[in-house]
Specification:
The protein is of the alpha/beta class. The chain has ten helices and nine strands. The chain has a five-stranded parallel β-sheet with strand order 3-9-8-4-5. It has a two-stranded antiparallel ribbon with strand order 1-2. The structure holds zinc ion (ZN) (2 copies).
Length: 274
């Protein structure tokens, strides 16, 4: 007990001397002194309160409410938020007509200007330090929607090799690479592997931005392949990407993985358009 309290005092003192930088407003701030710091294993029931608590080391108290969390009612397959904020989760009309190759897709936050700016800074201005806080958003959604027990492999959606060389990093892999440390820190296990080379992109597709749904589907068609089928045969896979717009990219990846023998594919994205 004494040790626990000393550790908390130490953390609070560390926070006083080394302030945190807010992902959204870029300002330095101090965490409030607290004796009752809780781990993610005891997330508050209210989703907004849980999100604010979980991300407090990276988002200041005044910016936290500016993020819109994806909340029920949503489509049980593609995760789309329904316009009506009443009723239970159910299958949306699109998924009813054309079921996806993945089982479920879930996202942490709504893709608005705030989130878009952070992702653009990371991807195109090389602000790599933003990967960790964005990874915490992803981790929050992961803990809320998925069970680490049911997964075998986590795969970040790959970039075309030429693009990877040009950018120097896969932004999604950067976001999730610390989960190995963060999940045990939050009281969870890490019984899976993060694999960034099983799924490969073999076509240098043009950017999906500005394309209509049908064009997006055509653009990414047959643009992925699996390096070694035995690695995914019979496995439960979680595909991770930054933004879910129409879902064409992750659906094409899921199609490739299922064809290659994966048992089940689920999708987790940082943000989702509404
Ligand atoms: Zn802030
Ligand atoms: Zn749907």
């Amino acid at each position: 007990m004494v040790q626990k309290i000393s550790r908390r005092i130490f953390h609070s003192l560390t926070s006083a001397f080394f302030p945190n930088r807010c992902l959204a407003c870029d300002r330095l701030y101090h965490l409030p002194f607290s004796f009752s710091e809780q781990s993610g294993n005891n997330l508050p029931q209210d989703l907004t309160a849980a999100f604010t608590d979980f991300t407090k080391k990276f988002v200041c108290a005044s910016c936290a409410p500016n993020f819109s969390i994806v909340e029920s009612p949503i489509c049980i397959m593609c995760g789309m938020m329904f316009v009506s904020r009443e009723g239970d989760d159910h299958l949306c009309g699109r998924c009813q007509k054309t079921p996806k190759h993945f089982t479920t897709a879930r996202a942490a936050v709504v893709y608005d200007n705030l989130v878009m700016n952070a992702i653009l800074k990371l991807k195109y201005q090389g602000r790599i330090r933003l990967a960790k806080p964005l990874g915490i958003f992803l981790l929050f959604a992961f803990l809320h929607y998925f069970s680490e027990q049911d997964l075998d492999i986590i795969i970040p959606v790959p970039l075309y090799p030429g693009k990877l060389k040009q950018r120097g990093f896969n932004q999604v892999f950067l976001m999730i690479q610390d989960w190995k440390k963060q999940l045990p820190e939050n009281g969870y296990g890490f019984p899976f592997t993060i694999h960034k080379t099983i799924l490969q992109k073999n076509k240098n597709t043009s950017a999906q931005t500005g394309l209509h749904k049908d064009q997006r589907i055509k653009n990414v068609k047959n643009s992925f392949h699996i390096e070694n089928q035995s690695d995914i045969s019979g496995k439960n896979v979680l595909l991770v990407d930054d933004v879910y717009t129409t879902g064409s990219t992750v659906n094409e990846c899921a199609k490739t993985l299922i064809k290659g023998g994966a048992r089940r594919v689920d999708v987790l994205t940082l943000a989702r358009t509404i």
